[in-house]
Design goal:
This protein is α/β, with parallel strands linked by helices. The protein has one domain: Glutaredoxin, CATH 3.40.30.10. The protein contains five helices and five strands, in the order βαβαβαββαα. Strand 2, helix 2 and strand 3 form a beta-alpha-beta unit. The termini are far apart. About 25% of the residues are buried. Keywords: Disulfide bond, Electron transport, Redox-active center, Transport.
Length: about 120
């Protein structure tokens, strides 16, 4: 599956309407962002069950601010609408594959219920 552009208008619906969503916050002037883009796109073709979204932080400054983006690229992973990974920096292909494996295996339901029990 190809990557899709996310905007303030479709961000929440995309996150909550899909099981697993990876979001790449980037900008055209960012060298590491441009270097990471082919890795992100290639990964999207390997995992059609995962939604790959890209947020142009220049075009979507309010969305980037709301997501508290401090440096780019920043990669976020959401599962069942919950943020489970948030890290700045471009990942090499093997690390991105490992992240996707971990996200797929992560039981967000039990993690959420155990957090509420601890509160």
């Amino acid at each position: 599956m190809a990557t899709q552009d996310l905007t303030a208008q479709n961000f929440n619906d995309t996150i909550t309407g899909n099981d697993i969503v990876l979001v790449d916050f980037w900008a055209s002037w960012c060298g590491p962002c441009r270097a990471f883009a082919p890795t992100f796109t290639a990964s999207s073709e390997q995992h059609p069950d995962v939604v790959y979204g890209k947020v142009d932080t220049e075009a979507e400054q309010e969305l980037a601010a709301a997501a508290e983006i401090r440096s780019i690229p920043t990669l976020m992973a959401f599962k069942k609408g919950k943020l489970i990974f948030n890290q700045a920096g471009a990942l090499p292909p093997a690390a991105l594959e490992d992240l996707i494996r971990q996200v797929k295996e992560f039981d967000v339901d039990s993690a959420v219920s155990s957090q509420s029990e601890d509160a």
